[in-house]
């Protein structure tokens, strides 16, 4: 497969987040695998912004403990952290002349054999979801064209992730609407049935349902379901009477 074909295939994969069973971890790992295969780099990792804290969740490709150890620091400092914080690419990643603020990251990266570290943000307009860290063991930074392609991959990944999130939210809302609609239909059925059975108006029947639900601390939908199942309001469970002493009169 040619490089152009691989690039095209990668963009198709990054757009395919609408399928059932979408797995964000597999999605991001696939992104790192494609970066290693297509770009002139040694390793790649995606660091996502955590929804619960201003940290990141590393999603490394399978490169062993050296990369995992490096990412423990990369969540706080280094090019990936800077790219996430500024929503801009960090391309001046020569670790021999790295900023002092990258001290721990630089030490671990060089111990792991890396010479350059760059990063591009996963962003869409004003929202940044994380960053894509690019590591290289060879002399010199990645070619400028590869960094531009990495940013394009990261942008496509951000769009795919946001689409997946919107779809998940839409599914949740649809489920809630369907449940609410079903409950309303059930309550209307129970109201009509009770009105006909007792010879009262629909309004009085609804008040009866609601009063029964409140008195017995039951959801209105449960009372309506009982009316349709048992053809009447559910009877309250009998309260057990405490047993008296032997020989005592009732």
What does this structure look like?
- With 250 residues, this protein is an alpha+beta fold.
- It folds into 2 domains: 3-170, GAF domain (Beta-Lactamase); 172-230, Winged helix-like DNA-binding domain superfamily/Winged helix DNA-binding domain (Arc Repressor Mutant, subunit A), CATH 1.10.10.10.
- Helix content is 54%, strand content 12%.
- The chain contains 8 helices and 4 strands; from the N terminus they run ααββαααββααα.
- The protein has a 4-stranded antiparallel β-sheet, with helices on both faces.
- A hairpin with a 6-residue loop joins strand 1 (43-49) and strand 2 (56-60).
- Helix 1 (3-15) runs antiparallel to helix 2 (24-38) and helix 2 runs antiparallel to helix 6.
- The longest helix is centred in the last third of the chain and has 55 residues, at 144-198.
Secondary structure blueprint with pairings:
Layout: H1 3-15, H2 24-38, E1 43-49, E2 56-60, H3 65-74, H4 79-86, H5 103-111, E3 116-124, E4 127-136, H6 144-198, H7 202-215, H8 220-230
Antiparallel strand pairs: 1-2, 1-4, 3-4
Helix pairs in contact: 1-2, 1-6, 2-6, 3-5, 6-7, 6-8, 7-8
